[in-house]
Amino acid sequence: MNIYYQDIIERIRIHYQEMTDTEKLIADYFLGNQKRQDFSAKIMSRQLHVSETALSRFAKKIGFSGYREFQYMYEINFHMPKYTNDDVVQKILDTYEMLLQSFNGSIEVGKIKSFCETLSRAERIFIFALGSSACAALEFKLRFMRLGLQVEVIDNPHLMQMQAVLARQADLVIGMSLSGETREVLGALKAAKVRNVGVTLITSNRQKNLHDLFRQVLIVPSIEGLSLGDNISPQVPLLILTDIIYSFFMGMDSNYKSALLQDTLSALKTDDSNDREVF
Q1: What percent of the chain stands above pLDDT 70?
Q2: Which end of the chain is more exposed for a tag (fewer CB within 10 A), N or C?
Q3: What are phi and psi of 203, to 5 degrees?
């Protein structure tokens, strides 16, 4: 299968064990299919001997509003170009282009502004993340520490739980999970929320239950296989969102924050000069 469509295959695999036998039958078909055909609900219900309602339940279980949305995104794969091993560079570049195009029009500016206001009010900021998401979280920390924010990245599940319990209401806890399925991160966010601590989840998972669970959810686009690192780093959409948040945040009080940024950069240059003198 071509990699240039949203993470449908990955979604199916993630939720496979939660499916009923009928849903697994549908899942097996779409996981194994390699050819373009009519994927309409009427045709597929006849071919798989399942009801159209079962197709709808299957689509909703993996995060779509219904089978029609699932069908549309699944069919995109068969309209994308195929690549050989000789086209590796082009394949990577096309993946980046596909991801960047997904950002266009998908960012909810109102939510970004609201998140930036929350950032500015927080006394301390804790980011819970594992794996590649933790690497992106570290970049977030470095960017915003230069603006005077107190940011800590916690990438240990046990420390996440401890910090969630110790967090204060004036703090902000951010969870980064591209899949939205990282139990350790979600569990720690829930623990912080119970203590009335501000919580924000950054993810590519659009399932409604996450929006119901957490007041602030920032969605980043994704493509199939991204969280597995098949072609480009899973950090990329998180890093792009970090750039967007940073730009909005700087714009809230640009003169003061620009001056503060220059102060921190000057301090770093001074430290570098002292190190060179020592050695």
Answers
A1: 81
A2: C
A3: -160, 170
